[in-house]
Design brief:
By secondary structure, the chain is mostly helical. It has 15 helices and 3 strands. The protein has helices at residues 15-20, 24-44, 53-71, 75-99, 119-136, 140-144, 150-164, 169-185, 190-211, 214-224, 235-247, 258-261, 273-306, 310-334, 352-370, and strands at residues 101-103, 106-112, 115-117. Helix 2 packs antiparallel against helix 3 (53-71), helix 2 (24-44) packs antiparallel against helix 13 (273-306) and helix 5 (119-136) runs antiparallel to helix 7.
Length: 384
C-alpha cells in the first residue's frame, strides 16, 4: 500500500511523499515520444542537430522540469487559478486581434521582444480549468439541462470566435470540441446534444459557403478532391499521402525518406512530421507511435477516474481530451482524412508554445494524481 493510500483526504503530504506519487510511467512515455520527435527533426535537417532537434530537446527538458514542479502544486492552487488563467488567455486573444503579429497571412501571435507566444495555446489550458471549476460547483440537475449552461457556452464561444477571427480554424475547432466534451462529461443532457448536433449539421453548408474565407473553403474542397489541384492547394495532402504510402510496412529506413530529404513534403518539421516518420519507419513504426500516444491517454484517463474531486476529474479529463484531439486531428490530416488545418503532432512537431502548453497540461494531470484525495470548496452555481 502506498503512502498516499494511508493519507486521509485533505491531509497535507510532505514533499518527498508527493514526489513519489508522480506517475513515472507517464513521464517515461512522454520522454519516448519527445525523443522520437527529436530523432525525426535530426533526420529532416539532413542529419544535423540544428536548427530544430537541439532546440526541441532543450525545450522538452525545461518543460519536463516545469511539469514535475507543477505536479507538486496543491490542487487548491489550480482551483484558485482557474478563472484568472482563463481571463489572462482571453485578454491575450483580444490583444492578438488588436496588435497581433502577422505571419503567413494570419495574426495568431504576440511578440515581446525576441519572444513570440501564441495565446490560443494558453487558452486551451485556461478553458479546461475554467469549465472544470464551474462544473465542480454545479448540481447534477443543472449540469444536465438548465439556464446556467449558457455560462459554459459563453466561456467556450468567446475564445472560439476570437481564434477563428485570426484566422485559425483548426485551433478554434479543437477548442470547441474540448469544451463540448467537458460539458458532455459534466452531465449534459442527451436531448440537448441531439438538438445541437442537428443544428450544427444544418449550419455547415451555409457556414462553408458564406462565412469561411476563400482559402479556408478551398482547403475543404481540396480535402474532398486533392487531385484536382496537385501543384496548388492539393499539394500538401498529396505529398503526405505519397510519404505514407512509400513507407510501406517497415519504412525506407532512418534518414532515407525521399519526400522529406528532397524537400517534397512541406512543413516536414511541424504539421507533417508524422508523415516523415511514416515514410522512414512504415506502418509498424506508426502503429508503435500511436500505441505510445494511446498509452498516455489511458494513463491520464485513469488519473481522472481516481480523483476524489469533481474539479480534478474534469480538469484531468479535459486536458486528456485536448491531447487526444491533437493526435487524432494531425494523424487524420496527414492521411488525407481531414482538411489541412495546421494542428501539430504533440511533442513530435517543432514548436515552443505548443510544447509548453502540453507539458503544463500534463503537470495539471500529475497534480490531480498526487492530490487525488484533496477536497475542493463547493461554491455551487456561481463563478466564485
Amino acid at each position: 500500500m502506498t503512502s498516499s493510500a494511508l493519507t486521509r483526504p485533505g491531509q497535507r503530504e510532505r514533499l518527498p511523499t508527493k514526489f513519489s506519487e508522480i506517475d513515472w510511467r507517464l513521464c517515461l512515455l512522454l520522454c519516448f515520444i519527445a525523443g522520437a520527435g527529436a530523432m525525426m527533426l535530426y533526420s529532416v535537417a539532413n542529419s544535423s542537430w540544428e536548427p530544430w532537434a537541439d532546440k526541441h530537446l532543450i525545450r522538452f527538458g525545461l518543460c519536463f522540469a516545469v511539469m514535475l514542479v507543477l505536479a507538486l502544486v496543491d490542487l487548491r492552487v489550480w482551483f484558485a487559478a482557474a478563472y484568472p488563467t482563463y481571463l489572462v488567455g482571453l485578454l491575450l486573444l483580444v490583444a492578438v486581434a488588436a496588435v497581433g503579429h502577422n505571419a503567413l497571412g494570419a495574426t495568431r501571435w504576440l511578440k515581446f521582444g525576441p519572444v513570440t507566444i501564441q495565446p490560443s495555446e494558453i487558452m486551451k489550458v485556461g478553458l479546461v480549468l475554467a469549465l472544470a471549476r464551474f462544473y465542480h460547483g454545479l448540481s447534477a440537475k443543472d449540469a444536465r439541462l438548465s439556464w446556467k449552461l449558457f455560462i459554459p457556452a459563453a466561456l467556450i464561444g468567446a475564445p472560439v470566435l476570437l481564434v477563428a477571427h485570426q484566422p485559425d480554424l483548426g485551433t478554434a475547432v479543437l477548442i470547441a470540441f474540448t469544451g463540448t466534451a467537458i460539458m458532455f462529461v459534466g452531465g449534459l443532457s442527451w436531448r440537448l446534444i441531439a438538438v445541437a448536433a442537428i443544428l450544427v449539421g444544418a449550419s455547415v453548408p451555409p457556414f462553408i459557403l458564406f462565412v469561411l474565407k476563400d482559402y479556408q473553403r478551398d482547403r475543404i474542397f481540396t480535402f474532398l478532391n486533392p487531385e484536382a489541384d496537385p501543384s496548388g492547394d492539393g499539394y500538401h495532402t498529396l505529398q503526405s499521402k505519397i510519404a505514407l504510402g512509400s513507407g510501406g510496412v517497415l519504412g525506407k529506413g532512418y534518414g532515407l525518406g525521399s519526400q522529406s530529404q528532397l524537400n517534397f513534403l512541406p512543413e516536414k518539421h511541424t504539421d507533417f512530421i508524422f508523415a516523415t516518420f511514416a515514410e522512414e519507419f512504415g506502418f509498424v513504426g506508426c502503429f508503435t507511435m500511436l500505441m505510445l500516444y494511446a498509452g498516455v491517454v489511458a494513463i491520464c484517463l485513469r488519473t481522472a477516474a481516481i480523483s476524489h474531486s469533481h474539479f480534478g476529474r474534469l480538469s484531468a479529463g479535459g486536458v486528456t481530451i485536448t491531447f487526444a484531439l491533437y493526435v487524432l486531428i494531425n494523424a487524420a490530416m496527414v492521411m488525407g482524412l481531414a482538411p489541412v488545418v495546421g494542428v501539430p503532432m504533440p511533442l513530435m512537431s517543432y514548436g515552443g508554445t505548443v510544447m509548453v502548453t502540453v507539458m503544463v497540461g500534463f503537470g495539471l494531470i500529475q497534480a490531480v494524481r498526487v492530490h487525488r484525495y484533496e477536497e475542493m470548496p463547493s461554491g455551487r452555481g456561481t463563478l466564485l
